[in-house]
Structure formats: structure tokens, C-alpha cells
Design brief:
Strand content of chain A: 15-25%
Largest sheet of chain B: 7 strands, mixed
Number of strands of chain A: 5
Strand order of the largest sheet of chain B: 12-13-10-21-18-19-20
CATH class of the largest domain in chain A: Alpha Beta
Number of helices of chain B: 19
CATH superfamily of the largest domain in chain B: Aldehyde oxidase/xanthine dehydrogenase, molybdopterin binding domain
Radius of gyration of chain A: 15 Å
CATH class of the largest domain in chain B: Alpha Beta
Radius of gyration of chain B: 27 Å
CATH superfamily of the largest domain in chain A: Beta-grasp domain
Oligomer: heterodimer
Helix content of chain A: 25-40%
CATH topology of the largest domain in chain A: Ubiquitin-like (UB roll)
Number of domains of chain A: 2
Order of helices and strands of chain A: EEHEEHEHHHHH
CATH architecture of the largest domain in chain B: 2-Layer Sandwich
CATH topology of the largest domain in chain B: Aldehyde Oxidoreductase, domain 4
Strand content of chain B: 15-25%
Shape of chain A: globular
Largest sheet of chain A: 5 strands, mixed
């Protein structure tokens, strides 16, 4: 049964008609044309669908849309813009930390959660925090460089 | 083509309407038999009144920066700022068919057309400017798009002042086939050594838009009235559809069933409804058409099968020189899944007056052919528009979604978007071929006197023409198109491995038939690259065995069998960059704090004109069999480097992906189907598996034409790791992937760690 669910995404409020247990990902992509959370597996195994829910990196492919009701949802587009970039976006661009870029959303959103809560994380800690994300192209080395660069930038 | 510009610039609802005029890709000269194919300058480059240079190419951006490199050449030829060149990628209505992307051939072979076109555009514009300024063209120089008379600062013109010279769009003979397509023009491009923009580390044009979520991906294409679709794969190999219970999806939104011959799918307005309907859809299938062999016996199965085709490369007299007691070894490389990050997505809009398909395919023009055959419409009525999908690494079959979307759209008369699910891709996507090898050699006084290799793999007859043939898609096969385009693919030893100077050698590449002629999750295809990683794992591991047998250092042994100075330099550079200690393997045992024994190994590969030497340092836990790659160092020579930073990123990524394949990846199967369906059942390397050090040594050859990159650096990694494992524990792991299971099995077979 559809319900009206009020979502706040990147600061904008939307009413969405959806079944409460529908994954948030489809509300974002399908109902709201929010394009950056991507379908990768639908199983919370890869992270391509990651958004922030109240600042916490969350896999939207397995999170019921009803969970996001009354909470703030942030997507990659809401994290920063070319005019007001998040340091991670700048760092990923500077380091060219991607090949196809399909997974990029997950890395940036997960790393943004980490760097928001931990200053100067060690390399081991970064690897741990990003340990359950998948990049099939193998861009990990550049991604690690980018996250370390942003971490440095954010504590400078 | 304003529709096209809207599409590329779009960030939200991307709506492209096919126009009749857009279908005229290029004109043919009508009167002269045999016809000379003509192409116009505007098929490749167009300069707009604001000075923007649009660059049209079917070399789409699959994540390695090829279009950026092309834009560097264009900017350099025209002497305009790099920022002014705009790649226009992969729309069949306005790009010339030049083989699309594949084989790391895009830069290697595709650069000629784009450089010729740019040189000719400059020449035409300068001729016009020379006339206007009243000086010979030879007295003109161009800086940032401004034309100056040499020595007279008062006389300048902009390119945009003389744009009229480009009308009417000049025609030139089109030359070559496939990747070699180019155009013959009077103008001559700059010498390699004259390039300044090409050769520098400019930012890839797709990177910043991707970081801000503003790059157009095919998953975001939404034509008006679009429905979401899904389709169902067979439950087992070779099974065919018997019946569909359309009532099984009732009540799931507005979902409805589409049944075309043996193809069954669903459409719904909302994506979640389409997903749920596909899950709920009740279908009945025949039993599997074959019983797959037990996975553990796959190599035995392969050796038991009749050879349907073999290719032999030989030199000297092997039989007279191999000797009575050659060194022998048997190797195995598994089936692997492309397991793309995104499982594949396409949108199709099939109308009576034309078909538009949006896809992330590497080969838009081939897909156009395939769609025409699938829908039984003239090719001229089909337009394929490229938008980025996840990286495909070869013939991944992401286009399955295009075939399904086309069938569904035709049935319901609306645009349909199909995004595959994870299992559709990991389980049912094409696989790189399993390979088994028997090798033997006679080594005397540190030199290989005779070398014999017999390598077997499954024929890839479904993929040579993919995606240009309707029967090459599973969706197409289910819809009634037979997979009858039998082509022998793979079995090309000569192009799959490095060439050593060996007086007597014979390499036999043998093909066995695929398990099932259609509806098979173990159909084989190219995956970075056609057969290079498996072949190189086998041959370069065996080379290491020979070096060790001869009591020689692995690099010195290889150098002894190489003559090409570029090959030699790559090995020398990787030795120096990795602090390689010259000694035979295995001899020195180092134990680190984790209880791991440490070793290092090298492997060498060539691909077309590119040379790669890779050193791996690994830690091996002999009790658990766990292998950890500590360092990867790669020396890479592909001639002229168009963009060092972009190249480095590509090589790093290929090193990590090939490391992942070497130690984690194997597509598993039971008697009836592939059982690798997701990231748990098909594990790949994650962040914590990444080596502590990954170093890339770029060997630049500023005066030598650029070769390919990407696939070449995928080749040596597995053997370098296997050879490092041997160095560490004295045990040769001849079965990939080098999982704890396979490492422990090798230790058990050997009896102990030495």
C-alpha cells in the first residue's frame, strides 16, 4: 500500500508516494530524479547507492524509504558543487581518483562521513572505513591518495 | 543537433528525440565503382562560431581518458586551448564507425584519424587567413586560436573569423577498416616530438563532472513516457522457456508481462514495481541442456574434449631438441566474471519511424547492427546514443540490457529502461575463458634450447561479432535468434604472450567447444584482454620455473632471451625501481611480523607494441595459505605518452584489477549453473587488500607513435605474484586464483614449505 512519505533531500522537501518498505534508492532515483546514488548490487555489498541519512553514510538500496522520513538525506550533489566543493570532491578531481566513476558516489559519501567525524585518520583507519566498498576498475590506489589529500586539507 | 548538445550538457531529465536527419552518418560517393567511401571533416571535427571545437568519435570514455587524449591532440594540432575542445562521443548518428573501443586500440590506432582531421582543419583555416592577411600561410603562427603574421603583431585573425572556409564541409577519402578507420587529407599532422599539449598531464575531461555527480550516465537517461523493465534469465544452462504465468505479477503496481518466444520480461511505471514483478514472475523452463562437469575436474574435462580448432606457432625443430627429460608443468586459469560495478543498463525507444537505444556499450555502431537484426528493421532506422555505464573491460555483455529493452519497448510501444540486477551480470554475464596448459622445455647452460606449450580454452564463438548479431545476446537467443554465427575466437598464442628468443619452440593454442550453444552463463568473451592474462600467467610462471631450474636470477634469465632494447629496458627499469636483488629463486627466507614469508617475483609481457614488466612482493602465510601482495612495481613502455597522469591512473587500476583476478577471482558453478552471483560469491580485491606500495615507472618515447595501454598492464601481474609466492615458500602455485585453498593444495602436493 502506498503512503505519502515526506523526504528532505539535499535541503529540499518532497512528498513521495511509495510503499514504506521500498528501498530509499528508488525513491531518490525514480521519484526524485536524484541521479548520484547508483544501483550496484541491491544487497548492500558495494556501496554505490550510498547517501547520508542525518550525516551517516547509509546504503540506500536496502534502507526502507520510511526510515528516511523526518531525517535529512544528503546525496553527492548536495555534498558540494563546483562553486562550493567538498574537499573530497576537489581531491578526487585533483587525483583523478576514478576510472569509470560508477562507484565514486559510494567512496566520496563514505569518506565524507569518516572525515566529518575523525580528524587525521591513519591510512589503516581509512582503509578500514572504506573496506566494504567495491571499485571494480581497481582505482583504490588513487582513491586512497584522494582521501588522504582531503583529510590533510580539512585539518590544515 | 541541438538535441545532442542538450543530452551531453544535461544533468537531470535527459530527453533526446531521434531525428530523421541524424541517421545520415556519412555520405558515399555514388558514381565510381568500386565506391570510395568518403568522410567529411565535420564527421570528425566541427568548429562553432564561439570557437568551441567539437570532436566526434566512437572512442567512448570507458574510464581511461582516451577522449581526453584525443582532445589534447586536437588542441595541439590547432593550437587552441585544450578547454575549447569538446568530446562528442559515440552517437551513431554523428560519429564515424571506427570499431568503437576495444583491445587498448583506441589511442594506438584511433589517433591517426583525429590528428589528420585536426591538421586539415588548421590547414584550411590558415589558407583562408593567409588570403585575408595577404601573406603566405607559411608566415602564420597560431597561439591560443589567434592567428598572427610572424613578425607583425598588428596583423591577427581569429580562427572564428575565417570559419566560412569550412563550408561546404570538405570531403575526403575514408581509409581502413575497424579500428584502423582514418581519413586521407592533404595536410600533415605535427611530428610526435612537436606536441606540447599532447604529452602533458591535463585533467581528464570526465573526471571533475563525475566527482560532482554531473556526468551523464546511461542509468540516468529518462525519455518522456519511459517504463522500467526487467527480464528473467534461465534457471540453468541451456534451459528454454516453456510457460509464463502472467497472473503472477498482478497487483504489483501496474506491472505487466511481455512474452516474446522464449523471452519473458516485465514492465512497470515504477522501477521498484518492475523489480518486484520480475522476482514474482512465475516461469517454467526445460531442464538444463547439459550437465556441467564438477568444477574441480574442469581441467580434466577440457583435456578430454575434442579440439575444434588449433593454431600452432613454431620455430626451429622442437622434436629434435626437446630431449628425453624436459622440465614439465601443468597450469590452470579459471573462468572469471567481468562483474561490472554497474550490472548494465540501457534504454530503448522502438517506434514505427525509428529506434533509439541509449547504451554504455564500447561499440555503438556494432550495437546498432545488432539492434537492427534483433528488431528486424533497416540499420538506417536505428540510432544508438552512448552514455557512460560502468566500466566494461571488454565484451562484458552489458548490452544484454539493450536487447531486452528493445524487445520490451517494441512490445509495449513506450521507451523502456532495463537495468540488470547483480546476478544478471555476475552470474549470467560473459566470462573470460578458463585455460589449461601443458608446458615443457629443455634448458641447457642457462638457455632455453626447446620450448613447448599446449594451451586449451573454450571457444568464444558468441562474442566475436558481439554486439552486432542478435543471437549473441542471451535475450536475443531466448527471443528466437539462434547463436549460429560460429566464429573461432581465442587460440591466438602469438598475440597473447611475450616473444622470447628461443631457437626451437612450438606453441599450440587449442579450442574446445563451449558447454552449450545458447543460453549459457559460461559463454566466453574478452576480458582485459582476450586471452592475455591466462596465457601470460601460464607462460611467465613457467619461465620462472626454468630460471629457477637453471639456478639463475629471473630477470637475468629473461634478459638472456630478449633482444629488443625496449623489452630489455623495461626489465632493467623495473629491477631498479623495485630494488631487485639479483639472485635465483627461491633462496632467501624473510619472515615478517605477521608470520608471513616474504618473496618477490617478476613477469614480463608485450601486447602489440606495448611492453610491461611487473615485480610483485608478497607475504605468504604457509599455515593459512593466505597471500598478501605487499608491493607492485610496474615499468610500462607504450611509446609516446599522451597524458602521463591519466596513463598512470589506468596502469594502477589495471594492476589492482589483475591482482584481484590473480588471487581472488574464480566464477564457480555447479552441475547446472554458475553459482557466483554477487560480491560475496564472487569476491574481488577490497581496500584492505591493496598493496602498501604501487609504483608505476612510465617509460616515455617522445618520438615513437603511441601504443595501447590498459590491457598490457593486466597481463604480467598474476605470474609476478605466483613467482613471488614461489620465492617466498619454494612452492609453485600452478592453479589460479591463488586463494588459500589453492596455495595450501600446492603446499600439500609439494609436501612442505622449503
Amino acid at each position: 500500500m502506498d503512503k505519502t512519505i515526506r523526504l528532505r533531500v539535499d535541503g529540499h522537501v518532497h512528498d513521495v508516494q511509495a510503499e514504506p518498505d521500498m528501498p530509499l534508492l528508488y525513491a531518490l532515483r525514480d521519484n526524485l530524479a536524484s541521479e548520484n546514488p547508483r544501483f550496484g548490487c541491491g544487497l548492500a555489498q558495494c556501496g554505490a547507492c550510498t547517501v547520508h541519512v542525518d550525516g551517516k553514510a547509509t546504503r540506500s538500496c536496502v534502507t526502507p524509504v520510511s526510515f528516511a522520513e523526518g531525517r535529512a538525506v544528503t546525496t553527492l550533489a548536495g555534498l558540494g558543487t563546483p562553486e562550493h566543493p567538498h574537499p573530497l570532491q576537489t581531491a578526487f578531481a585533483e587525483e583523478q581518483a576514478m576510472q569509470c566513476g560508477y562507484c565514486l558516489n559510494g567512496w566520496i559519501m563514505t569518506a565524507a562521513d569518516l572525515l566529518a567525524h575523525e580528524k587525521k585518520p591513519s591510512r589503516a583507519r581509512i582503509k578500514e572505513a572504506l573496506g566494504s566498498l567495491v571499485c571494480r576498475c581497481g582505482s583504490h590506489v588513487a582513491i586512497l591518495r584522494a582521501v588522504e589529500r582531503a583529510a590533510k586539507e580539512m585539518t590544515a | 543537433m541541438t538535441t545532442r548538445a542538450t543530452f551531453l550538457a544535461g544533468t537531470t531529465a535527459l530527453v533526446v528525440v531521434a531525428t530523421g536527419a541524424g541517421y545520415q552518418a556519412f555520405a558515399l560517393a555514388a558514381d565510381t565503382p568500386p565506391p570510395t567511401k568518403m568522410t567529411t571533416l565535420g564527421d570528425w571535427l566541427r568548429m562553432l562560431p564561439d570557437g568551441t571545437v567539437e570532436m566526434y568519435t566512437d572512442k567512448v570514455e570507458v574510464g581511461m581518458g582516451v577522449p581526453t587524449g584525443f582532445a589534447q591532440f586536437v588542441a595541439d594540432e590547432l593550437d587552441v586551448p585544450f578547454e575549447r575542445v569538446r568530446p562528442m562521443l559515440g552517437d551513431t548518428s554523428d560519429t564515424v564507425s571506427a570499431g568503437g573501443v576495444g583491445g587498448s586500440f583506441s589511442t594506438y590506432q584511433g589517433n591517426f584519424a583525429i590528428r589528420n582531421a585536426a591538421a586539415e582543419m588548421r590547414s584550411i583555416l590558415l589558407a583562408s587567413a593567409a588570403q585575408r592577411l595577404g601573406v603566405p600561410a607559411t608566415q602564420l603562427t597560431v597561439t591560443d586560436g589567434v592567428i598572427h603574421v610572424t613578425g607583425d603583431a598588428t596583423k591577427t585573425l581569429r580562427y572564428t573569423d575565417v570559419l566560412a572556409a569550412l563550408a561546404p564541409d570538405p570531403k575526403f577519402p575514408q581509409t581502413g577498416e575497424g579500428f584502423n578507420v582514418s581519413l586521407t587529407v592533404p595536410a600533415k599532422p605535427k611530428e610526435w616530438t612537436e606536441y606540447r599539449i599532447a604529452g602533458s598531464s591535463l585533467p581528464r575531461k570526465d573526471v571533475a563532472p563525475k566527482a560532482f555527480g554531473r556526468y551523464p550516465y546511461v542509468v540516468n537517461v529518462k525519455p518522456a513516457g519511459m517504463l522500467h523493465g526487467r527480464f528473467v534469465y534461465p534457471p540453468s544452462v541451456g534451459a528454454t522457456l516453456v510457460d509464463v504465468d502472467a497472473s503472477s505479477v498482478h497487483g504489483i503496481g501496474d506491472a505487466r508481462v511481455v512474452h516474446v518466444a522464449g523471452f519473458a520480461g516485465v514492465v512497470a511505471t515504477r522501477e521498484w514495481d518492475a523489480i518486484r514483478a520480475a522476482r514474482a514472475l512465475k516461469t517454467t523452463w526445460t531442464a538444463a541442456s547439459v550437465t556441467l562437469p564438477a568444477q574441480a575436474q574442469l581441467a580434466d574435462y577440457m583435456w578430454s574434449q575434442p579440439v575444434i580448432k588449433s593454431n600452432v606457432v613454431k620455430d626451429g625443430n622442437l622434436d629434435a631438441t626437446i630431449g628425453a627429460t624436459p622440465l614439465k608443468a601443468t597450469y590452470f586459469w579459471p573462468f572469471q566474471s567481468h562483474a561490472n560495478m554497474g550490472p548494465g543498463c540501457s534504454v530503448a525507444d522502438v517506434r514505427a519511424d525509428g529506434v533509439t537505444v541509449w547504451s554504455g556499450t564500447q561499440k555503438t555502431h556494432a550495437l546498432r547492427q545488432g539492434m537492427a537484426k534483433l528488431l528486424k528493421v533497416p540499420v538506417a532506422q536505428v540510432r544508438v546514443v552512448w552514455a557512460s555505464d560502468a566500466g566494461s573491460y571488454g565484451r562484458a555483455g552489458l548490452e544484454e540490457s539493450a536487447a531486452a529493452a528493445a524487445l520490451l519497448s517494441r512490445a509495449v510501444g513506450r521507451p523502456v529502461r532495463v537495468q540488470s540486477m547483480r546476478a544478471d551480470n555476475t552470474q549470467w554475464g560473459t566470462k573470460s575463458p578458463a585455460m589449461a596448459g601443458h608446458l615443457s622445455a629443455n634448458v641447457q647452460d642457462g638457455s632455453i634450447v626447446a620450448f613447448d606449450a599446449v594451451l586449451r580454452q573454450f571457444n568464444g564463438n558468441e562474442i566475436f561479432s558481439q554486439p552486432s548479431v542478435a543471437g549473441s545476446f542471451i535475450a536475443g537467443q531466448m527471443a528466437g535468434f539462434p547463436n549460429d554465427d560460429v566464429v573461432y575466437e581465442f587460440g591466438q598464442y602469438g598475440s597473447a604472450t611475450a616473444k622470447y628468443e628461443i631457437p626451437n619452440m612450438r606453441a599450440t593454442a587449442e579450442l574446445v567447444a563451449p558447454f552449450a550453444p545458447g543460453n549459457s552463463p559460461l559463454r566466453t568473451s574478452h576480458m582485459r584482454d582476450p586471452e592475455g592474462p591466462g596465457t601470460t600467467f601460464i607462460v611467465e610462471s613457467f619461465m620462472d620455473e626454468l630460471a629457477s631450474h637453471a639456478g639463475m636470477d629471473a630477470i637475468i634469465f629473461r634478459l638472456k632471451h630478449l633482444k629488443d632494447p625496449r623489452h630489455i629496458e623495461a626489465l632493467e627499469r623495473v629491477a631498479s625501481a623495485s630494488d631487485w636483488a639479483t639472485r635465483p629463486s627461491a633462496s632467501i627466507k624473510r619472515l615478517d611480523t605477521n608470520g608471513e614469508l616474504i618473496g618477490r617475483g617478476v613477469a614480463f609481457a608485450t601486447r602489440v607494441v606495448t611492453t610491461v614488466a611487473t615485480v610483485a612482493e608478497v607475504g605468504v602465510n604457509p599455515k593459512t595459505g593466505v597471500v598478501r601482495v605487499r608491493r607492485l612495481i610496474c615499468a610500462h613502455d607504450c611509446g609516446f605518452i599522451v597524458n602521463p597522469k591519466s596513463l598512470q591512473g589506468t596502469i594502477e587500476a589495471n594492476l589492482i584489477q589483475s591482482m584481484s583476478r590473480a588471487i581472488y577471482e574464480e566464477a564457480t558453478f555447479d552441475n547446472h549453473n554458475v553459482t557466483s552471483t554477487d560480491w560475496v560469491t564472487y569476491p574481488i580485491a577490497h581496500m584492505h587488500d591493496i598493496p602498501d606500495e604501487v609504483k608505476v615507472v612510465l617509460i616515455n618515447r617522445p618520438s615513437i607513435a603511441p601504443g595501447g595501454a590498459g590491457e598490457p598492464s593486466s597481463r604480467p601481474t598474476a605470474a609476478a605474484i605466483a613467482n613471488a609466492i614461489f620465492d617466498a615458500i619454494g612452492v609453485r602455485v600452478r592453479t589460479a586464483p591463488m586463494t588459500p585453498k589453492n596455495v595450501l593444495a600446492a603446499i600439500r602436493e609439494r609436501g612442505n614449505v622449503t
